[in-house]
Write a structure and sequence with these properties.
mainly beta, Jelly Rolls, Immunoglobulin-like, 4 domains, twelve-stranded parallel β-sheet, ten-stranded parallel β-sheet, 2 helices
């Protein structure tokens, strides 16, 4: 294939994406905060961002940003290439820095190398706008890059190939695929064993786009042959670079999150391109995966059994019991619990539930239902027996009572200290007859091992009141997890958990990928969460409703304080798709390490409502959008004496006003912000940062 003749392209530098803010300093030495730039080799003054110039030898350095499976933050030295051109781009690369210089461990988000992208994000804010943080930037891309091979401060540098496709929105979308392949796991050793991340490793890196895909090649200084790699995934086709911007591609060299490298002898050759490579890819909508969940136990009382199931897709249900058909082709709505009452005559009856989807697929659930005789009111105690009758003087064990309790019944917990409780989906109540838990005196749930969730509610239609969950500050202990729907949790409290992950005192989140099964319409009322920690002392929230939470969840009159992360966290991952709207009403957050109320994350739109809440003395912000560009309704709330901002609501770079300016869809009504203390102390406090679609009756400190 003969190279095409065209004028030499011009090159630019840019920095964009999450964690590239001028004040970003995590793992960064003093004096390097906010350093994300491109400098001509041998010079100290960086290139002016987005100023075009001929290609030259450069040093590229990034102390912020990140490479994530679905979005980026990086510093990029690049040129624009028409989508109608194939190309071969190569350069001599010397890796100088990979990982923090402050001797802390890399976090897996560092990378630098050669890259082709579909679209760049907006250039970062400079000068820095107080309160503004850079949004995630998503793009289809292919790269050959250096990454840390481990999470220790002196890990070798690996050379890897990576590709991302399925991105159709520059702010990110679900359904994205990110593939990596380690080509050289021990390409370079640190130049110094002191853990400062210094290297001196050279290679010639090359990236080619052709009519069939992408070819990556490299050659180290001591290697005689040039090694090549191409992805065998047919989805990584040349046209992925036209999914967002159908006219241009962006090729060049990048660094992200504590990485520095030299780039010399840049060579760019253009090749002709066939029309097949120019047809933008179609957005792939993965079909809903048929799944059936049984929500009723294998136990019934007094000869009547409520068969109960949930499905992820539409279809019809047939139920058979003891060889006879009890119902045929009952319609099923995705995510809605469907039930049907059947008679159970014998002591043990085989029940079959056959679910047929609209596409003709068939799923079957079979169980042997045992007939027993238990009261609607069952009593349990910490020392209850699996063989107890459930009476106050002969209590059951908690596990056994959970399965024996019929819809509409009440489980009475006698006073005492209980081990962790798990309520499975097969113990669900029904919409007309929820199951209840009531305490008959002080009830405390404490850990029994080093890896416990104190209360796991993977069930629907429960009404639970009066529990105390005490993690005893024992590492590996999580609090109250809600994975089911239509539950009411009232007058409960969780405290002194020491979570092993980014958990919370109370957390509403999914354990199933199908959106029809996301926990929805849960109500937490008058609950309290405090002194919850994690190993890093910065990632345990008081209340969280995130990472796969459906519609209609709400927190009413809840109190969150002295937790190591946020008071109330509504974080949203890009890959999950948007969470459902959440209502926060009459809640209070104070003295939490980070935000009082964090209302989103990663650019997903969710129309949460925050009404009549109070936030004070939190380490960061009182009320923060946290990159949620949706139509938040924030009304009649009060914030004071928070460490950063009382109110922080920012415009989205992906939403433009009539003059092309970033805008916000937030609605702010009747909110109050103030600081207490001496006048000179108030002057040192930061102002509020508020951008909104509509404001009325607010008293902000601007």
């Amino acid at each position: 294939m003969r190279p095409s003749k065209r004028s030499l392209p011009l090159w630019k530098s840019t920095t964009f994406g999450q964690s590239t803010d001028l004040n970003f300093h995590t793992g960064v030495l003093p004096g390097k905060t906010g350093v994300n730039d491109v400098r001509p080799f041998g010079q100290t003054v960086p290139l002016v961002p987005e100023a075009p110039a001929p290609a030259q030898d450069i040093i590229i350095e990034s102390r912020g940003g990140k490479i994530q499976p679905v979005h980026d933050g990086l510093t990029f030295y690049y040129t624009e290439i028409p989508a109608t051109q194939n190309f071969i781009l190569s350069a001599d690369i010397t890796l100088l820095q990979l990982g923090p210089e402050d001797h802390t461990a890399p976090n897996g988000q560092e990378a630098c190398g050669i890259m082709i992208r579909d679209v760049n994000g907006p250039q970062r804010q400079d000068p820095f706008i107080p309160g503004y943080e850079e949004y995630p930037a998503a793009s289809n891309m292919v790269m050959l890059d250096f990454v840390a091979s481990g999470r220790t401060s002196n890990s070798p540098a690996s050379l890897q190939a990576a590709a991302r496709y399925g991105v159709f929105d520059p702010s990110g979308n679900s359904g994205v695929s990110f593939l990596t392949r380690t080509l050289e796991p021990d390409f370079a050793r640190p130049a110094s064993p002191d853990g400062s991340g210094q290297y001196q490793a050279a290679a010639r890196l090359c990236l080619e786009r052709n009519d069939t895909g992408f070819l990556l090649s490299y050659q180290g200084p001591d290697q005689e042959e040039i090694k090549t790699f191409s992805f065998d995934d047919p989805q990584i086709a040349p046209n992925i670079m036209t999914a967002i911007d159908s006219g241009r591609m962006y090729a060049g060299f990048f660094a992200a999150r504590n990485a520095r490298m030299e780039v010399r002898n840049i060579s760019l050759t253009f090749l002709p391109c066939t029309s097949a490579a120019l047809t933008p890819p179609k957005r792939f909508q993965a079909p809903a995966v048929p799944a059936l969940i049984r929500t009723s136990p294998d136990w019934c009382n007094n000869g009547s059994y409520c068969v109960s199931v949930m499905a992820s897709v539409s279809g019809r249900l047939t139920i058979k019991a003891g060889g006879r058909t009890e119902c045929s082709f009952m319609p099923v709505t995705p995510g809605i619990q469907t039930q049907h009452m059947i008679p159970v005559i014998s002591a043990h009856t085989m029940v079959s539930v056959i679910f047929t989807t609209e596409d003709g697929a068939s799923l079957c659930e079979e169980m042997t239902v045992t007939r027993g005789h238990f009261s609607h009111d069952l009593y349990v105690s910490p020392n209850g027996s699996d063989l107890g009758s459930g009476c106050p003087d002969d209590p059951l064990s908690m596990d056994e009572a959970v399965q024996r309790l019929v819809p509409g019944g009440t489980l009475h917990m006698l006073p005492g200290v209980y081990p962790p409780v798990r309520i499975p989906m097969t113990a669900s109540g029904t919409p007309t007859d929820p199951k209840k838990i009531r305490t008959e005196g002080p009830v405390i749930i404490r850990p029994s091992s080093s890896h416990d969730v104190l209360f796991s509610l993977d069930s629907n239609y429960w009404d639970i009141s009066g529990l105390e969950l005490d993690g005893k500050s024992q590492f590996g202990i999580s609090g109250f997890f809600i994975h089911g729907s239509h539950n009411v949790i009232s007058d409960c409290r969780v405290h002194h958990t020491m979570t092993p992950a980014r958990d919370a005192g109370f957390m509403v989140s999914t354990i199933r990928p199908q959106k029809a099964f996301w926990p929805s319409y849960n109500r937490l009322i008058r609950c309290e969460s405090y002194e919850n920690r994690d190993k890093t002392n910065q990632n345990a929230d008081g209340f969280a409703c995130r990472t796969g939470a459906g519609d209609g969840n709400c927190f009413i009159s809840c109190l969150s304080h002295d937790n190591s992360d946020d008071g109330f966290d509504l974080y949203n991952n890009i890959n999950d798709g948007p969470n459902g709207p959440v209502l926060l009403e009459n809640c209070i957050a104070y003295r939490n390490h980070c935000n009082g109320f964090k209302l989103g994350g990663e650019g997903r739109e969710a129309a949460h409502t925050v009404h009549n809440c109070i936030s004070f003395e939190n380490g960061l912000n009182g009320f923060s959008d946290n990159f949620n560009p949706g139509q938040l309704l924030v009304e009649h709330n009060t914030a004071y004496d928070n460490g950063q901002y009382n109110f922080l609501f920012r415009p989205s770079p992906y939403k433009k006003g009539p003059d092309g300016e970033p805008v916000s869809d937030c609605i702010l009504i009747g909110n109050l912000s103030f600081y207490t203390g001496a006048a000179e102390e108030q002057e040192e406090r930061p102002r509020d940062y508020v951008s909104s679609l509509h404001q009325d009756g607010n008293r902000f400190i601007l």
